[in-house]
Amino acid sequence: MPHKPFKAVIPAAGLGTRFLPATKAMPKEMLPVVDKPAIQYVVEEATHAGIDDILIIIGRNKNNLSNHFDSVPELEESLARKGDHDKLAKVQHSSDLADIHFVRQGEPKGLGHAVFRAKAHVGDSPFAVLLGDDLIDERDPLLETMLELHDRTGAAVVALMEVDPESIHLYGAAAIEETGDEGTVKITGLVEKPNAADAPSNYAVIGRYVFAPSVFDILERTQPGKGGEIQLTDALQELAADPDGPGVYGVVFRGRRYDTGDKLDYIKAIVQLAADRDDLGPVLRPWFKEFAATL
């Protein structure tokens, strides 16, 4: 029988303290990456993978997020009167992307808790979790591969990327077994932000996950872990350790990923994406060379 359509969950309740004071009154997910807020790239990624039902988990003072995906009749009428159809199309595009819903996380108890808040909306559908700090280049599909793997196996699926071993303490690290399928591994264990000496590998979990709705039963009983928060990694560890379950698989991503959760990497993301654009790249790339020569 065909599976139920996938839904998507985007946790966006964090305080964004690394970007203060810019995020004092504006959610970090609304910081612009060239000319779109970071979260729009994430929503577009979900829709490109065929998901049109999206739940965004928000915290206090995050109304800008819902406003961005709402229609703005006064602005649209003004642009139409001016005949500025290009800008009008861009404004309407963000409103027409998908069926977008919002729910508050309430207490900031960690990523696992934020995902659990999606239980009522997700119901009995399989779903993807997309973190807004990781932008995946649309030219390098990832989510589509993860959804297909979940369809085929029924397993939880996470995105992995090989990182410098000295950086593994910034991520969840996966212990893996080869499957024989290139780019796909079986995950036998996970450790949240381990020291380099204790990491099971340099395969880091990046911000894309696919779950069956049964994960909510695990999250409901998951106790606070590292940092006193309910960790999604702990729920994945339980799934990986279950000898009777479908387990956890990893899709190894070797494409273009932009980390917007760090100030330096955020700047790099803007530079990389702008340089690749047809409207900005031809002028920007020569300027980069001139600027670099002055350093």
UniProtKB/TrEMBL annotation:
Residues forming the Nucleotidyl transferase domain are 7-273
Ordered alphabetically, the record's keywords are:
Nucleotidyltransferase, Transferase
A Gene Ontology MF term for this entry? UTP:glucose-1-phosphate uridylyltransferase activity
Give the highest taxon in the source lineage. Bacteria
| Classification via CDD domains | UGPase_prokaryotic (cd02541)
EC identifiers of the protein: 2.7.7.9
Query: Which reaction is this enzyme known to catalyze?
Result: alpha-D-glucose 1-phosphate + UTP + H(+) = UDP-alpha-D-glucose + diphosphate
Which SUPFAM superfamilies did the record assign?
Nucleotide-diphospho-sugar transferases
List the InterPro entries hit by this protein, alphabetically: GalU_uridylyltTrfase_bac/arc (IPR005771), NTP_transferase_dom (IPR005835), Nucleotide-diphossugar_trans (IPR029044)
Q: GO annotations under biological process?
A: UDP-alpha-D-glucose metabolic process
The record's family statement is: Belongs to the UDPGP type 2 family.
Q: Which PANTHER family match?
A: UTP--GLUCOSE-1-PHOSPHATE URIDYLYLTRANSFERASE
What protein does this entry describe? UTP--glucose-1-phosphate uridylyltransferase
Origin species: Microbacterium lemovicicum
Q: Output the lineage of the source organism.
A: Bacteria, Bacillati, Actinomycetota, Actinomycetes, Micrococcales
